[in-house]
Design a protein that fits this description.
Elements lengths: L1 E4 L4 H9 L4 E4 L4 H31 L10 H14 L15 H10 L19
Parallel strand pairs: 1-2
Length: 129
């Protein structure tokens, strides 16, 4: 949505953007200004489409893990992790290399309130100088 108005104020522009407007154009405007806004809209839409395609490719390459276990201690740990996923809590997963921290992190993210957001892994040992 692009808001075009003859009654432009800073407050109305801020409110329009807060409510999701892509841009805000006060009258009078030039054809070049409209063209630039439309070019940005097209570019952003193209990028969003590309990101969605890439996310789908990642999901198909890295399917969600089936985390089932009969071990009571592991079941308790999974239950706790998935309960935390529905909150705003920040989780730190620790363990030796190859123990499945990344798999568990993806499963937590998939069940979280931030599932629509990006999932980013950080290899902490690689951060040391």
């Amino acid at each position: 949505m692009v808001v075009i108005t003859a009654y432009a104020t800073i407050e109305t522009a801020v409110e329009a953007m807060r409510r999701g407007a892509f841009d805000f154009l006060p009258k009078p405007f030039t054809p070049d200004e409209i063209r630039r806004v439309l070019e940005r809209v097209v570019q952003i839409r193209r990028l969003q489409s590309h990101v969605e395609e890439l996310e789908e490719q990642v999901r198909s390459i890295v399917p969600e893990a089936d985390l089932q276990t009969v071990e009571p201690a592991m079941r308790d740990a999974l239950d706790m992790a998935f309960r935390a996923a529905s909150t705003e809590a920040t989780l730190l997963l620790r363990g030796e290399s190859g123990t499945g921290k990344g798999v568990l992190a993806r499963a937590i993210h998939a069940r979280s309130v931030h599932v629509a957001g990006p999932f980013i892994t950080v290899n902490c040992p690689s951060l040391s100088s």
